Amino acid sequence: MEKRVNIAVVPGPGFSHLVPILQFSKRLLQLHPNFHVTCLIPSFGSPSSASKSVLETLPPNIESIFLEPVKPEDLPQGVAIETQIQFTVTLSLPSIHQALKSITSKTPFVALVADSFAFEALDFAEEFNLLSYIYFPSAATTLSWYLYVLKLDKETSCEYRDLPEPVKIPGCVPIHGRDLNNQAQDRSYKSIERGGKRVPSGVSCWTNCSNW
User: Fold this and answer.
1) Which of 44, 66, 96, 170 is the most buried (most CB within 10 A)?
2) Domain range holding 133?
3) What PANTHER family is this protein classified in (predicted)?
4) Could you say which DSSP state residue 63 is in?
5) Is residue 84 assigned to a domain?
């Protein structure tokens, strides 16, 4: 019998982030039946009934742990949902750290996989001697954009939507700055740059490479 291999995964908050990483975990277990996955779930407010229903259908080698929920009143108001998601992860970092400390003290884990919105959790990988990975279910074009945006940020002084020439993202068809996603239209919003800084140091990245 193969030795059991334990992996921790951290989705972004919300049902739409939970489901993809659970599907990824199921696929991983199909390929490696000796793997065991522990899913550490950040959330704001109480978990939705949809999330609970999905978790009830999981196989026994996928375990789920709901972290202490972030209070809605602790989140910034009147901002994009992406900002609230990012703040939820940031405020959940102490709970993520405590959960990792608890489970690794009892069972040896080998890797930590974080959703692209939960990239800050990878800061704990070195402390617990874990391999670190980013799970990026969006299109590979988006991943290439995240990896390129730091270079573009240094070379550009205006808003991206005001660039006279299309942005030449490596491996992609050139895109006009005005057609980039909403987060890129305000350069004072630094989540994209933060994500760009984290993705390369994730060492490895799982992405939907068939979808550009």
Assistant:
1) 96
2) 5-138+200-208
3) UDP-GLUCOSYLTRANSFERASE FAMILY PROTEIN (PTHR48045:SF6), UDP-GLYCOSYLTRANSFERASE 72B1 (PTHR48045)
4) E
5) yes
| CA atoms of 178 and 185, how far apart (whole Å) | 7
Active site residues: 17, 115
Which residues 6+ apart lie within 8 Å of 25 measured at CB?
A: 9, 37, 39, 62
What CATH number has the domain bearing residue 86?
3.40.50.2000
Residue 52 maps to a domain: yes
- Is residue 37 within 8 A of residue 28, CB to CB? The reply is yes
Residue numbers of the chain with a pLDDT score lower than 50: none
Q: Which of 5, 65, 68, 59 is nearest to 39 (CA)?
A: 65
**C-alpha of 68 from chain center:** 18
At 100 the pLDDT is 96
Residue 190's pLDDT is 62
Cβ pair 160, 185 in contact under 8 A: yes
Q: Which amino acid would we find at residue 144?
A: S
- When divided into structural domains, the chain yields a total of 1
Look up the pTM and report it: 0.83
Note the pLDDT of residue 47: 82
**93 in a structural domain:** yes
